[in-house]
Amino acid sequence: MKRFLSALALSTSVFFGIAVTIPATVVSQYGYSSQLSGDGTIVGDNIFLGFGDSDDWQIEFISANDELRIQHSGGTNVVLFDVPVAAASQNYLSLTATALIANGSETVAGVDINIINANHTGTGNTLNLLSFAALTGDANSNLNGILIGALTGTTGADTPPETEYAINIGAGWDSDIEFKTQATFTIDGLDLGAWKVATGTLTATQVRKLNGTQVEAIAAPGNGKSIVVESFQVMLDYGGTIYDSIGAGEDLTLVYDVANTRAQVGDCDASTNCLDPAATADDFALVRGYQFSDNASRLESNDAVNWQILSGEWASTDDDTDGNSPIHYLIRYRIVATDITP
To answer: pTM, whole model, 2 decimals?
Structure first.
């Protein structure tokens, strides 16, 4: 009680029969002025609370800055809470510390979150160790969900030298990092295109006339951008009747839009080498990144990617009796900038 009350007096005063004093150096630095109100609440412009034999740890409220500060008397360890103000750079919450020398196998954490999980019941529970609420962007400000500053200094003296990671994820996670479908991925400002996935089904009706009528798989990405297909999976979901008119070269293919049919981006031979349209059971295939015979892949700016069967149709008529198996697909792709001028 004496230590607590000693933080409240500007000069020697008596509270509850106890004489208390704030150190003169603290008064001269911050100009503390506080008192107890009738209900025992601490009021005043500046409030100082000291703890420890020599006020080693201090809690201070500075009204001039609207700051609440928790600090060590050495001044090297500070937690600062600040009230938002307009037209000023500031940190709403900051932790400042100077690490001391470690001499072997020590681990130091700036912030350590140690939450012991429970044996939950039911389903649909979620535990977020660190959670950021949804935000609304603004046209006049940049926004970083997490900003990691530049690292400078020398490598360690050990052989091999110590390793420095911006992010280091331990083992055991189902997924280390999950990107949403429309996420982007950039290095030095260059959009490399995050992995994206397109899924869908070609109905038997669409498959039977897929040479003459292409079906869009991925919409055009916009001016100055191109779709790069990394791979696709297909599954012929056998419906009981095989397609009756399969000929050589009638390959299930991903192509750029109708005006650019030369730009094939994936080709699946209509044979047992890939997807077998004559299979009498479900059939599966994986096609990796497509290349032309000259080992080059053409990019088309702002073009959709469509499904097509080359050369001819798999069915002699548009009737279920000539083939009734739909095809499910999963396409892995990226959207990249076509202009990569340095």
So the answer is: 0.52
